[in-house]
Amino acid sequence: MILKTRHITFVASLFVGLPVVYAQQQPQFSHYMFTTMLFNPAYAGFQNAIDATLIHRQQWYGLDGAPQTTGVSVSAPIAMINSGIGVTLTSDRIGFFNNTNVNLAYSYQFSIGEGTLGVGLQAGLRDNRLKLTDAKPPTEGPDPVLTNKEDVSDMLFALAAGVYYKIPDRYEVGLSMGDLNEAQSDNLAYQTKRCLNITGNYRLNVDMLPNMDFVPSTLIKTDFVSTQIDLSLIGLYNKTYWGGLSYRWKSDLAILGGAFIKQVQVGIAYDLAVSSMIRSSKIGGGFEVFVKYNFNLSVDRLPKSYKNSRFL
Question: What is the pLDDT of residues 236-247, one digit of tens each?
C-alpha cells in the first residue's frame, strides 16, 4: 500500500503543480525496424503495397501505472503521382496520463541513383488527458497532490516531416522531426518538444550462410536535451523466420523473434532491464507483440525491384 501510494503521488506530481512540462512524445518500440511509419511520414507507400501494422507494448509489468503503448498504421502507394499516403494512431498510457495521437501522412517519392527518396509531411491531433479521478488517495490521510483534483484534457495540433531513402536489398536511412510546432496546453501546463529521429539499416549476406541475411539497424531519438539510442541485429533465415537482439542504451536489452506467414508477419519481444535502478526495484520487464499485413499491389510506378518487400 505504501509503495502504491508513493507511486500515485509521484506520477501525479509529474503533471500537476509544474509551470510547464516538456516531454518527448515519440512512441517507443523494440520493433522500431518494423514500425517506421509510426515516426516517419516519408515512409508512406514505400512498400508498394497496402501495409497495415498493429503493435502493443507493455513496459515494467507488475507496476501500477506502468507505460502501455499501442500503435496502428496503414499506408498505401498512389502510383499515378509517385506518392504514398498513410494514417497512424498511437496511444500512450502512463500513470494517470493518457496521450492519443491521430495523424495523416503524405509522401512524394522519386528516384535518386539506385534507390528511391521519399519526402513526407504529417499533420494530426493529440488528445492529452490527465485522469486524476482514477487516483485513490491514501487512507492514512489526505494527499495534497490529489485533493480536489478533476480530470483535465486538451486537444493539440501536431506537425511532422521526414525524408527516407532506400536501395532495395542493401540499405535504408531516414530522418524525421516530430512536433515541429511545439504545441502548448494551458489546461495541462504541458508543452511538446521537437524530436529528431534518425534510422538506418543495412542488409548483410554471408557466403558461408546462403540461407541467412543479417540486418543491423539503429534508431536515434533526441529532443536536443536528452538522447535515446537503440542498436539491433536481426538474422533472417530462408526469408521466413527471424530473431535477434536489440539494445536500448543504458536501459533495456530485448530478445526479438518472429515469422512470415504468407503476407502476414508476426513478432514478439521481451525486454530485460539493464538499468540498475529498474533491476533493484524488482519490477518486471517489458513485453511487445506486433502483426503486420501486406496486401500486394501490381501497379506501374517508379522503377523498383523489391525481392522481399515484406522485410524492413
Answer: 999 899 999 999
Per-residue cell: 160: 511532422
Distance between CA atoms of residues 223 and 195, nearest Å:
4
| pTM (predicted TM-score) | 0.84
Q: If we measure between CA atoms, which residue out of 243, 252, 188, 247 comes closest to residue 215?
A: 243
Count CB atoms within 10 A of the CB of residue 114.
Answer: 10
Q: Please choose, from the candidates 196, 198, 205, 190, the residue with its C-alpha nearest in 3D space to the C-alpha of residue 178.
A: 196
Cα-based angle 116, 36, 198 (whole degrees, multiple of 5): 80
**In Å, how far are 45, 84, 105, 149 from 119, measured between CA atoms?**
11, 10, 11, 44
First to last CA, the chain: 45
Helix (H, G, I), strand (E, B) or coil at 11: helix
Q: What is the DSSP string of 138-156?
A: -TTS--TTTTT---EEEEE
